[in-house]
Design brief:
Strand content: 5-15%
Shape: globular
Strand order of the largest sheet: 3-2-1-4-5-6-7
Number of strands: 13
Order of helices and strands: EHEEHHEEHHEHEEHEHEHEHEHEHHH
Radius of gyration: 21 Å
């Protein structure tokens, strides 16, 4: 009887401070068990065949971590592929050994470094010179949205039949409606994510400053500060006279996010582009009204359950924030629509669709 084919799953990027990509990978790989996978991971799991990888290669180690991981991927993974006698490498990130004998499938989460080139970011270099070859050599490409799939076809001239969009999901046991009231003393709007320029935080700060009765509210910016961009945002809050109303909250542990979302008046996520937009889905699952952009994958995620705004129009963003703050019927309607919309996403479904793509190549 023929043994089940073995698939090598590259989890070398897992971090102690999980990003959206780490969250995706951790929730996905349990659903790949029918493939009898071998995990390349810094976090051993006794329920799986695991092969340890060097430490210090995660994104939270900064440029050094990225560099070590990319070198390891190019020069060590092909040897492991042969040694472990696997038939397919699956990488939940768009990283794979090029010019090698490895057969692989990769997940592309976004092409933001190509849409918004940043000369100070090494990611721009990777996306311009390495990623195109990774994508061309892949047996198949997964994407987390229709929007990202279109970008892959457009930027890399990949035939559409080689690209499959599979939406992400969220932990239903973690992100959920809690018995916590919205904060009554100075209710807060919340933003979750990094502070890169394309996240559009300066427009958000201007929009918040323009709110009627703005002193009645706070704006909480939750996510790792960045010495390249955070000082600009902090300076803007002082310039607008709202420094005491804007909280920069650094990294917040995963277990604390549901309570923060449940007690917020709304999630405000006016980013200029997203490959998917996990914070939007997680907020809706918590019964938190959402204001987000009408571009990229965000309408795919939010559907009709959020206020969609033009992220380049600060006045439109201010009006949406004011509407949620003052219209109780609107808030309740968005809460119910958001809960219903979020229920359509699950990691089990994401995993099943991923298996359907990987099986023919394994």
């Amino acid at each position: 009887m023929r043994h089940r084919p073995l698939v090598l799953v590259n989890l070398s990027f897992l971090s102690q401070q999980p990003t959206g990509i780490s969250t995706y990978a951790r929730n996905l790989y349990p659903h790949l068990k029918p493939l009898d996978p071998i995990l390349l991971t810094p976090e051993p799991d006794e329920d799986y065949h695991c092969y340890p990888v060097p430490k210090g290669m995660s994104p939270d180690r900064g440029l050094w971590g990225h560099g070590l991981r990319l070198l390891w991927t190019q020069f060590q993974v092909p040897s492991l592929y042969r040694k472990l006698r696997t038939r397919l490498l699956f990488s939940p990130v768009p990283e794979a050994p090029i010019y090698s004998h490895c057969r692989y499938v990769v997940m592309v989460h976004d092409l933001i470094p190509l849409r918004f080139p940043n000369p100070r970011s090494r990611l721009s270099y990777y996306h311009r010179f390495i990623l195109p070859q990774v994508v061309r050599q892949a047996r198949h490409i997964l994407c987390n949205s229709q929007s990202t799939a279109r970008d892959v076809v457009e930027f890399f001239r990949v035939p559409a039949h080689r690209v499959t969009p599979i939406p992400l999901a969220y932990d239903h046991n973690h992100f959920r409606l809690l018995d916590l009231p919205t904060r009554t003393e100075r209710p807060y709007f919340i933003y979750l994510g990094r502070q890169d320029p394309y996240k559009n935080l300066q427009t958000l700060i201007y929009a918040f400053a323009a709110l009627p009765n703005r002193d009645d509210y706070e704006l909480w910016l939750v996510g790792p500060t960045d010495r390249r961009y955070t000082p600009q945002c902090e300076h803007l809050t002082r310039e607008l006279g709202i420094r005491d109303s804007v909280r920069f909250m650094e990294y917040v542990p995963y277990e604390k996010l549901p309570a923060l979302l449940n007690q917020a008046i709304a999630l405000v996520f006016p980013t200029l582009w997203e490959g998917f937009g996990l914070p939007v889905l997680e907020a809706m699952a918590c019964g938190t009204p959402v204001i987000t952009s009408n571009v990229s994958a965000l309408p795919e995620v939010a559907g009709d359950a959020a206020l969609l705004i033009d992220p380049y129009n600060g006045a439109e963003l201010t009006a949406a924030m004011n509407a949620i703050a003052t219209d109780l019927n609107l808030r309740e309607n968005l809460i119910q629509l958001g809960l219903l919309r979020a229920s359509e996403f699950s990691w089990a479904l994401t995993g099943q669709r991923t298996l359907e793509v990987l099986y023919p190549f394994a």
